[in-house]
Please model this.
Amino acid sequence: MSETTPQRVNDFVLKFANVNGTGSASANGLLMKTIFRMGVPVTAKNFFPSNIQGLPTWYEIRISKDGYSSRSGRIDLMVAMNAQTYADDLAEVTSGGYLLYDSSWPRERQLRRDDIQLLGVPLAMLVNQQYDDPRSRILFKNIAYVGVLSALLDLDLAVIDEILDELYARKPGMLEANHQAVALGRDYALAHFACPLPVRVEPMDKTKGHVIIDGNTAAAMGCLYAGASVGAWYPITPSTSLMDAFKALCERYRIDPKSGKNRFCIIQAEDELAAIGMALGASWGGARSFTPTSGPGLSLMGEFLGLAYFTELPLVLFDIQRSGPSTGLPTRTQQADIIAAAYASHGDTRHVLLFPKDPEECFYLTVEAFDLADRLQTPVMVLSDLDIGMNDWMCPEFKWDDNYRPDRGKVLRKKELEAMDSFSRYLDVDGDGICYRSYPGDHPRGAYFLRGSGHTAHAKYTEDPDEYTALVDRLRRKWETAKSHVPEPVLLSRNQAVAGVIAYGSSDGAVQEALDRLEEQGVPMDYLRIRAFPFNEQVDRFLAAHERVFVVEQNRDGQLRMLLLNESTARREQLISVLHYSGFPLGCDSVISQIQATISVKGAAA
Amino acid sequence: MSFISKPRVGHPALQRNELGLRQRDYEGTISTLCAGCGHDSISAALIQTFFELNIEPYRVAKISGIGCSSKTPAYFLSQSHAFNSVHGRMPSVTMGANAANCSMIFVGISGDGDSLSIGMGQFCHAIRRNLNMAYIIENNGVYGLTKGQFSATADIGSTAKKGEVNNQKPIDAALTAINQGAGYVARGFSGDKEHLVPLLKGALRHKGMALVDIISPCVTFNDHQGSTKSYAHTREHFHQLEQTDFVAPAEEITVSNEGRDLTPVTLHDGSRILLRNVKNGYDPRDQAAAFAYLKNCQLRGEIPTGLLFIDENSIDFHERNNTIETPLIDLAHEDICPGADALADMLGGYR
Model:
């Protein structure tokens, strides 16, 4: 078989089928890091259940010399370590590919395929001979398959050793055992198979200056660098790791050296209602504050979001989007909170949204979110998703300018208030809809009574129809101002494009790859990646320049399309949805086939 | 409500406090509550409390939820900062504001509906955190703004204005607070300002959660015969556990407030509350005994008032969380941003 298998050097997909809670994550991560350190671009995606132990879990590593990061639709080598899912895992392997399995026990006869090569390694038997305690036997079975793969894929053993040395620098016993387990698997593979396989890794130089990081950690770094000092949250997958990361960073970088005390305050709230209340209280108090959550939390935060909009309090809210309500798919990814976020709450409300495409943008757009929230005095929601937030992405290293100072917007502190005759919290002095605010406790003149929609320009209670109308009209004016402040979309033009494509967030990788393939097929298209709501002029210019625009998104109802129809010059017949909403990340094959289908039916647009 | 505002100019002979401020400087706008509302008496008690404690109004943050009670921050301390939040969520906003700037004095105004129904979760969790604040419940047993529905503090057998009888067990704010471990729990009656002011002073000076549950009759919807939160019923059934005096740190305990059965309770800032025992043997420092006594009172339909419980050694949220004393909003950006080199170092772990 191997003679007929085409060479797939630095261009293949490795998939691991494991059982949740067996320690496979560290083995899979070790492999991914090894390939990365060999200079070959990688992206990893973890497909895990809402479970602590026992249910099936998968880990997919895409190795792409061209730097593509989305799911390609191929599985070139499956490491099938879960008997429960073995049949499905076997079926999923791309014809001509490989399946590595534990041959310690006989497999059922009907589970076979002739168009792929099966590589049986008696992993359990090997580790059971080597280790005595049950926990080690489970853990090192994983490390043993790392050893097998190191031989099959021609991985640099020195790199594996180096990573293990770093991981277990303080646990010499564990280090030794890990090295042993790698050797166990590697020796077996070298003795029994023709190594390396045609599917293999060759060292490159394409990962220098890059890191492998998840979006929630990157966003937490953004919070740290933007100077957020108060974070309130309620645990919810997949946003939890954002606050976990922020806490770890603060404990490392925000401890006052003199007193040993915290220069931050993280509060685990009793629910999301309280989490956003705390974040808003802190914002009113003058701190940069944030709350990370996911869809169900966003719904619970609705009431406070309306109050924040009307009382004009800055707030950064992270919505790490997942699928649907309650139980079901809380560990699957989607972009399905767009409408819920854009118009969250009761009354006439609309909110600024940012759409990071990957961890790198999670870092930079988080810092920008804090500046925007302060500048516009309104909640800014960063709409990430599970794919960005919890998966490991390869990104250029983040850079930081030490000259950065938070832009707190129009704030009057003690000195300015001292020099004023009077202060009116909601008076539009500059005509841009943004008023001056004060922090409590700074100065007597800065004191005002913050309340819901019924307030005058001087922050006095009112139920007067003209005063209320004036307030909501000014908030609309502020919305217009926001358009020139939010990040611009990113335009990628191609010669003689036949149509336009609009996408946002984590769909970017799949869309970019799909557009490369479509151009090869003679269907070049322009691409506008939207990074913020409200939409600005560039969006309208793109719409005006393209008769037909495909809108790619990861939800059933075409929520960004709805928003475009509502908030831009787009025409209904102009926008064609390309949708993906299975809960797994978007793959480029799905984008290609849907666009191809439309184009072959309707013909290329003029 | 009254429509006539008092003139801003005060008589020169009006008494001034140590800051040179008159009591007038602690007042708010004209109340829009019903004439005779117990809440207005509480606002008056608060005005006197802040005046006598010599607190700069702008150093006070008044936070409230929704309801008649939550409107009252407009009626006292108009020179203070106020946040009228959403229903039942005053504690969370106060928590956040306190996290941003722990140097301010936080007074939360809530009602029985706001704290014991929609806000029950936040009420209990603010206590768990031992947030440093004075938490005032203006308790009238009824929803006033929506015209007379029972609240969660309505007693069994209590009747609504239209005759309906409540048959659900009440939630007692003070019992709940003691059970949850609040460090300062008091109950007052809006009709007894003299007794209420020292309780409020103690609450403001206690470091940690200080709950003051104040029976405050609703003259419009819950002041009739058959109500157990009316002026008449409360006057008939309340009894003071002790006579309470508040003594500021610098003041000496004088002969006039000395006497037999006098228990001085010291607060974190050195001020003291002097309790002259009225009920024999009641010790507000004994959590279990206080709980048992109050539970028995509740079953007998009695309303004990006074300092019900105090933990002189309570450790507040920031102390437990090791938060720096400097208010977080006063930290310079350099103090909280690790800088470019640290970022490069941090990212080194992601290769």
In short: Chain A touches chain B through 72 residues (CB under 8 Å).
